[in-house]
Design goal:
5-stranded mixed beta sheet, single chain, Ribosomal_eL30-like_sf, 14 strands, tRNA_m1G_MTases_N, methyltransferase, 2 domains, 7-stranded parallel beta sheet, 17 helices, rRNA processing, transferase, 421 residues
Length: 421
């Protein structure tokens, strides 16, 4: 009996299962899948919950994750200061350019081709400061090429919506750039319209009733320097007649140092349209860039070729001068130039709204500019220089006249203020 009870007791005891090591690993893995989902906190306080697929191992899940999830993982691991949370909220994205990208070929076309710029209505700006000035003035960007994301982050976010952002190698920008030290960012903009631009308030408060007319200026560096002086003096606007270098050429932009977005520029004008862009009762003065010795000799003959500042050929449309031109060749007549009074540049010529014509150094001013000066009651402004020196640089002459006009206006205001008191 005792033996029977012992057998029954042995039979009623629970059998201890034999557990293999592989079974323990499997149970641990199942428990891990039953835990609460992972919560990911972004710097923008956005919470994302993600569950792992039970049918995938962690290595497979990471390998099969999409590019967006991998990018989010990199952002979490990186410093919070470098995470473009505002970019994510604004929906901004950028592309990476690959070799042979057709979008890149248009950059050099815009840089080198004035007809393309005029036909497409687009310009190229390079450098962070120039691009920032353009955006502040209301210029409309189309495409940005940049080598580092930090350069784009410096620009206003609201100005970048709808703009194509393309990240390229710095070597590519270095190949395209005209700068000695490229800044790593270039932008294609719609050609600015002076009517729609927003110029700085300080510039508007100091605007003077003086306009500048560029006549046949072909040197990019000179034109850029002239635009810079016009903005510095407070010029109301700059008019460029046909025959001048394009104001939006990269070399002019570089020499202008942001002046393009501080003073209104009206490009490629016919002489017939110039008066339409000047205030009423404007007197037009032509910069006489000759020395006293040259001026005295020119007065004896009154021939255009004797004046360094007058083009010695006339447009074919001025038919009334054709007969006199034949007489000039035979020496019979030398009276075809408009008669303009010559006055010193420091005499008072700013009583009425004034416009100053600056001609190119090679070809001088045109006959149309002399006729416009004569019809408005203007004259020639003589800058005396030492005998033996042919002329001044056109950019220097423009700067002298514009700041002299600024001085005259300031003196007049001070005189009126003293008279009132």
């Amino acid at each position: 009996m005792a033996a029977l009870v012992k057998r029954v007791g042995w039979a009623t005891r629970p059998l201890l299962p034999v557990v293999q090591a592989s079974d323990l690993d499997a149970r641990r893995w199942v428990r891990a899948l039953r835990r609460s989902p992972v919560k990911v906190l972004f710097p923008s306080d956005e919470v994302v919950e993600r569950k792992l697929d039970p049918g995938k191992q962690p290595q497979k899940a990471a390998a099969e994750a999409g590019p967006q999830e991998q990018r989010q993982k990199q952002q979490i691991q990186g410093p919070a200061s470098q995470t473009p949370s505002t970019w994510e909220e604004s929906g901004l994205r950028y592309d990476k350019a690959f070799p042979g990208d057709k979008r890149l070929s248009s950059v050099m076309t815009i840089v080198k081709s004035r007809p393309f710029r005029e036909k497409q209505g687009k310009i190229l700006l390079e450098g962070r400061r120039l691009i920032a000035d353009a955006l502040k003035a209301g210029a409309v960007p189309k495409v940005f090429f940049f080598s580092r994301l930090e350069y784009i982050k410096e620009l206003p976010i609201e100005k970048l919506k709808g703009v194509s952002l393309i990240k390229v190698k710095f070597e590519d920008i270095k190949d395209w750039s005209d700068l000695v030290t490229p800044q790593g960012i270039m932008g294609i903009f719609a050609k600015p319209d002076h009517v729609k631009m927003t110029y700085p308030e300080t510039q508007l408060r100091h605007t003077l009733p003086i306009s500048l007319i560029c006549d046949n200026l072909r040197d990019p560096g000179n034109l850029g320097t002239i635009l810079r002086s016009a903005a510095g003096a407070g010029c109301s606007k700059v008019l460029l007649t046909k025959g001048c270098v394009d104001a939006w050429e990269p070399k002019v932009l570089r020499a202008g140092m942001g002046a393009h977005f501080q003073v209104p520029i009206i490009n490629n004008l016919d002489w017939e349209a110039v008066p339409d862009h000047l205030p009423a009762d404007t007197r037009v003065y032509v910069a006489d860039n000759c020395g006293l010795y040259v001026q005295a000799q020119a007065q004896r003959s009154n021939k255009a070729s004797d004046y360094g500042w007058v083009r010695d050929h006339r447009p074919l449309k001025f038919h009334e001068y054709e007969e006199e031109e034949e007489d000039l060749e035979s020496g019979a007549s030398q009276d075809w130039l408009p008669e303009l009074e010559v006055q010193s540049y420091d005499s008072d010529w700013t009583e009425a709204p004034a416009a100053v014509v600056i001609g190119g150094e090679t070809h001088g001013v045109s006959l149309e500019s002399l006729q416009l000066a004569e019809s408005t009651g203007g004259g020639r402004l003589l800058i005396p220089i030492v005998p033996g020196v042919d002329s001044l640089n056109s950019a220097m002459a423009a700067s002298i006249l514009l700041f002299e006009g600024k001085r005259q206006l300031r003196v007049r205001v001070e005189r009126l203020s003293r008279d009132r008191h």
